[in-house]
Automatic annotation (TrEMBL):
This is Tryptophan--tRNA ligase. GO terms for biological process: tryptophanyl-tRNA aminoacylation. The keyword Ligase applies. It is an enzyme of class 6 (ligase). SUPFAM superfamilies: Nucleotidylyl transferase (SSF52374). It catalyses: tRNA(Trp) + L-tryptophan + ATP = L-tryptophyl-tRNA(Trp) + AMP + diphosphate + H(+).
Amino acid sequence: MKKVILTGDRPTGRLHIGHYVGSLRQRIQLQNSGEFDEIYIMIADAQALTDNAENPEKVRQNIVEVALDYLSCGIDPEKSTILIQSQIPELFELTAYYMNLVTVSRLQRNPTVKAEIQMRNFEASIPVGFLAYPVSQAADITAFKATTVPVGEDQQPMLEQTREIVRKFNSIYGETLVEPEILLPDNKACLRLPGTDGKAKMSKSLNNAIYLADSEEEVRQKVMGMFTDPNHIRVTDPGRVEGNPVFTYLDAFCRDEHFERYLPEYKNLDEMKAHYTRGGLGDVKVKKFLNAVLQEELEPIRRRRKEFERDIPYVYEILRKGTEAAREVAARTLAEVKKAMKINYFDDFSLINEYTNKINR
Ligand code: ATP
Ligand code: MG
């Protein structure tokens, strides 16, 4: 069986370091591993509209921002197909058919959707499209027959939902769809990177993100202003590293060689954590180190972004070509789905013959 990746992002803002460690960094590795036959990376604008219906301009503007983030991180359009969801109507046809295989109560139980409904104050009036976006995600994943979906931890319920839809579809209509596997980052800190404010998730919607496109100075200011252990007041106070986002970011980004370069008094992060826990290590010093580590990782990304920014029409051309190629694949899957569901009337000559005979009998 072919090995196929599908993953993507909502164009609700520029991508941040949470996206980077949660999914983007791994995508680049997978892309360059040469182990996959096809890789699709989707800009999920239709999904973004499910909770931004009144704000189409935001979605429109962020499509190119997300594309620039991809390219600057090393997504290579020769190896990965970048596509825009809304431009592939086949995905919405699939969604419509999958909706019949899912109950409202099943959607309401989805813990990620539940948390997002709360965060957006949708409790009293949930847009139907928002509640059903996991179904549309199942359409996206299955349209490309994805075997592997590299995403952050919050996407686990979506993958489970997709697998249920695939199993149900195949059991009713016959083996047609491929059941995908989720691929989470192995580094625990990357599963759900917290915000600079210490909140559970760095998110475009929460104003607590360090963006890949932030300038050197913006990154520095955000790092120096980060939430840490609120009880670590004097340098001599013992500090907590658990739940301290500065250390979580270090867990996600820092390698032993960074100590050699920027803070040789420690050999590794464990030594630094031990000192912080004991007391005697100030937040400013830790933050300065984190800043150095982040700048080193972000500098080449920032530089490549500047290059791609010089030729925006080229970026749109990449999106157009990728979307066209992806649409062909989705159309093939839709045709198979309709055949399995026996709704391919005009291609179904046996039906025409059957009825010709039946009626003229
Ligand atoms: P929104 O608030 O609009 O939902 P978002 O920041 O949650 O935006 P998405 O586009 O929904 O971003 O998610 C894109 C991908 O990035 C998903 O695979 C998701 O799991 C991952 N991701 C998002 N935020 C984080 C995070 N803080 N840590 C790790 N992975 C993340
Ligand atoms: Mg999200």
